[in-house]
């Protein structure tokens, strides 16, 4: 694409990275995993005891607070960067911990703290299960056992229509929720705490990312059934997925704008906030080729020198509209997991050049900060990469589990070490 090539030149991301710098950063990450590993096998105050060791998001003795708990969706992204055979026991153990918590609490909590058991996080359990199945060549019997837990999670949590897990609310689609029935805590379940996406009324919205994730669940259940030889059940799941896709396109696709948005089911209105959540539809492969083309054309709303902003630049200061809580999941910040979803979505539809360009921009932003400061961050300012990210309701963290993992994944997937000079 001419526009893509021009943007590449203007942003300066066409400059090759230094191979020695990349090798140093990858080596730093490799050595850092041991600092993030924890094992608490018994309950300790609010900390939930887990049977296997796990990776926490960050470990900095100078930080305002310390992580000791395992997080739900963080664990999946971390696993994506731990594909070496030597990490198999650790990665499988982290998955087992999530399954253990579901069996104990009736949901996979936000994290392994007692005070997080009233809500979950974006559901990635089937993706985690298939990542382990495909990466380590697990048996079909293993798959059958693990996917059964994910089916229970899908039905009893995300498709539940009553308090305290009242997620499924409108035309078969689901929202984020919390046992306290508070908008801000439901927003915390989204993982995007905080964001202008939901206008501080998260309970009123059907999120495009959540329902794309649940579409992926249904496709994964069908795949599992096909592997296990239950073709009748597989067809049932494909029908459910197709039904969800139809409703998503009916409610969440903005035909004029050519993009997916969250939907306010209380007001019967399509949302106004442009966010990277829309690209979850491409990651889940529910968008048509024509829709994907329009979404790729809209990348310019998010793409900056350092990667992708979480939301498009607002016309006015949204903090004035939506209260005093700072929105860290918003412009000008960029986040590793969202870059992963967008890049994978682009690859799903054949936009390999765009995927590689964005992955390279993101890796270079991470690498430049590491070269200057010797650390990786939980998020970055991708508009002005020399400035720190905008803080949210808690101080910015160094570390950082999912940043490290996606950095390594992009470096490997796009052969960046081979192309560096």
Describe this structure in words.
By secondary structure, the protein is mainly α. The protein has a domain at 1-35 and 300-421. The protein is 49% helix and 8% strand. It is built from 16 helices and 15 strands. The chain has helices at residues 2-11, 19-36, 72-80, 88-105, 125-136, 140-158, 183-189, 208-228, 231-252, 280-283, 289-297, 318-322, 336-348, 352-373, 401-413, 416-419; strands at 37-38, 54-55, 168-170, 173-174, 205-206, 253-254, 259-260, 263-264, 269-270, 303-304, 307-308, 333-335, 376-377, 379-381, 398-399. The strands form seven sheets. The protein has a three-stranded antiparallel β-sheet. It has a two-stranded antiparallel sheet with strand order 1-2. A hairpin with a 4-residue loop joins strand 6 and strand 7 (259-260). Helix 14 packs across helix 15. The radius of gyration is 20 Å and the shape is globular. The two termini are 25 Å apart. The relative contact order is 0.12. The model is unreliable at 1-13 (pLDDT under 50).
Keywords:
15 strands, 49% helix
pLDDT averaged residue by residue:
94
Sequence of strands across the biggest β-sheet: 5-8-9
Give the low-confidence spans.
1-13
Number of strands: 15
The profile of the biggest β sheet is: 3 strands, antiparallel
Task: Tally the helices.
Answer: 16
User: What is the end-to-end distance?
Assistant: 25 Å
Gyration radius from CA atoms, angstroms: 20 Å
Strand content: 5-15%
Q: Rough shape?
A: globular
Q: Which class best fits the helix and strand makeup?
A: mainly alpha
Helix content: 40-55%
